[in-house]
Amino acid sequence: MVTQIVFGTIGGLGLLIYGIQLLGDGLQQVAGERMRSLLAALTKNPLRGIAVGAVVTSIIQSSSATTVLLVGFINAGLLNLYQAVGVIMGANIGTTVTAQIIALKLTKVALPAIGIGCAMTLFSKRNLYKNIGQIILGFGLLFLGLNTMSGAVKFLRQHEAIVNFLLSLSHRPYLGVLAGILVTVTIQSSSASIGLLLSLSGSGLINLSAAIPILLGDNIGTCVTALLASIGTSVSAKRAAVAHTVFNLIGTVIVLLLLPYYMKLIQLTSGNIAHQIANAHTLFNVANTIILFPFIPLLIKLVTKLVPGEEMKSPNYLDERLLTTPVLALEQARNEIIYMGKTAEEMLDLSMHGLYNKDYNDFKKVIKKEHITDVLEKDIADYLVKISQKTINPEIARQISSFLHVINDVERIGDHAENLTKLSERLLDGKFGFSEEAMGEIDNLYKKTLLFLKDAVQAISDNDQKLAQEALSYEDDIDDMVVKYRQLHVERLNNGKCKVIQGLIFTDMLHNFEKIGDHAYNLCEAVLGIK
């Protein structure tokens, strides 16, 4: 008997979880990339976010999966925390669809559905029919698993200790919440844990007053997956995962305080305990959303205090969760390249600012930023290679190749900015100083080079071919200035206005400005499609 209970429960739960997974995967395939586009195209309106969260979760069949996907979008900079909270609320509503499906107890159609779904999956030539077959197969396995569990847990009625414990949960709601959390964390699916709860209630082992607290615990337990997924992500992504948890915790506390009234309300919705549990799940998430929706700004303030920290990390935009959508991933790579380019701009600016103001702190900042550009070059290159390994069209392949050239050029610009910093530091350390004429020439060249670099990075950011074409003329200006200033430098050396050591530093600076101009020229060519 013990073997029947254990194997029946484990096997039935496995079928249920696998059925839910097949169902969700099939629905995702039928929906295509539209659900991801739906999330990515969110506006700042959290009300729309609720609708999108509900729809996407109904497709994915898992609020945890939606929240994990959401964490990826936030970490990639596609969504902010304000938008995310609305999606989280909608995800909680969307996940109740699974419970309503399970509550139907269509056990009679389980085997026919498995047969039809299996046949369509194996023998259909079109992917659409294969995916539909997978959905039907998922439904069948879901109800077969539910039926198997229900048959197994019926034997528990013969164990008085277990029956008394389950019934005692109606008098100890907080213990029921804890049980729900533990079960959901263990099996990593609130839908499956609700299925187990429905099997227990259907066998008469648990009543509504005990089931509701367990149900509340299931909602909290499902947040653990998102919390784990947020490890190593940005501060905003961590806050989104915590917001999901806080949202469910607040709702749980409200329902526990009003538990007798809430139970009476649920009893009015149906005379069948399976439908009552499913309705309790739906009403909890809908009511919780309605109650807390006006307080989204306060919720954001709360999670900001719970998860303190500044939002800055490198890389800022790359997120492997987005690799399944190459177009989206490529756009994030572009954003990271832009960030890398702006970092190189700052390095060039700081190298000269430190020289003019004799500020060694600026030199230290350049060294730190040079390390960032080195890391970014590797991270972006690795990310682009991973995109190229997906199914992509020729245009995306061309852009990947172009971006690989671009990040090399930007990294080299960072190296030359670092060289300028070291030369400036050497000049200050030796207390040599340039002549007024030499300093004026360096300043002119620096301003022209920085302007060229800024336009090149802006052209990449906006994919502006006109700006890139116009900026190309700067390269000739910089080359002409370098030639002219070298001649003037030789004249100053001959006239004794400049010493050899300053002269060497001066010519090295000219060389580095010229190289930065060359790499900025390459950036513009990349925008124009020449490389």
Structure in words:
This protein has 531 residues and is mainly alpha-helical. The chain folds into two domains: 2-306, no CATH class; 320-528, Methane Monooxygenase Hydroxylase, Chain G, domain 1 (Up-down Bundle), CATH 1.20.58. It is 81% helix and 0% strand. It is built from 24 helices and no strands. The protein has helices at residues 2-31, 34-40, 46-60, 63-75, 81-94, 96-103, 110-123, 127-153, 160-168, 173-187, 190-202, 208-221, 223-229, 235-257, 259-267, 273-292, 296-306, 326-357, 360-388, 394-429, 436-462, 465-471, 473-495, 500-528. Helix 12 packs across helix 16 (273-292). It is elongated, with a radius of gyration of 31 Å. The mean pLDDT is 82.
Q: Which value, in Å, is the CA radius of gyration?
A: 31 Å
Largest sheet: none
Low-confidence stretches: none
Which oligomeric state applies?
Answer: single chain
From the helix content, strand content and strand pairing, which structural class follows?
mainly alpha
Q: How would the global form be characterised?
A: elongated
Q: Beta fraction of the residues?
A: under 5%
Provide mean pLDDT, rounded.
82
| Helical fraction | over 70%
How many distinct folded domains? 2
Encode the helix/strand succession as letters.
HHHHHHHHHHHHHHHHHHHHHHHH
For the terminal residues, how far apart are their CA atoms? Answer: 72 Å
Tally of DSSP helical segments:
24
